[in-house]
Amino acid sequence: MEAAESLPGRRAMRKQEIRNRIQNAAYVLFRDQGIRETSIEQICGAAEVARRTFYAYYPDKQALLRELSYSRVLSTAEGMIERIMDRHHDTRARLSGIIDFIAGNIANYTEIDRKLILVSPASLEDENYLREISFNIQDHFREIFKLGVENGDLDGRFSPEILSEMVMGTFNNMMVSWALNPEFPIFEKLEEARDLFQYILSKS
Description:
This protein is mainly α. Helix content is 80%, strand content 0%. It folds into two domains: 1-58, Arc Repressor Mutant, subunit A (Orthogonal Bundle); 61-203, Tetracycline Repressor, domain 2. The mean pLDDT is 85.
């Protein structure tokens, strides 16, 4: 009975393991030889999966790119905010922690990572999925500011909603600008954003 009950869990783990292999193989190939130059056949060979297995997970290469964009860029943002919420206990430290995390990631990003930023979830066909991703991240930012009011870091002059919109909009615009132009001074802009957030929060 116990073995039968654990079968769905093992099956899910196996599917996720195959999905991870496909994504990891694709990322390395995209990074080393380019997206256009990489074929589905090459991805299947590197991931050691059959072509029909690839199509069981992704209808085409573009669908794989969209999911790779989410798993390597946006999903890390969600987990990062949760960790920073646990590690830091005031609003300013949390925002500074987020900026440090973004700067650290960008320092290690390659050309393919910039391209994945541009393969944004805005291209996702499932609007509900896109909405869920956006709302989840925005909820985390709102929680930061709500806790700031509760803990006395903020006096509530600005609503958590507008503060979260400001922060998310600033980060999104900077990331897209850098993805479009590698000469964009992203690190200087992040430091400027740090000063801006501190200034606005001090006024609130």
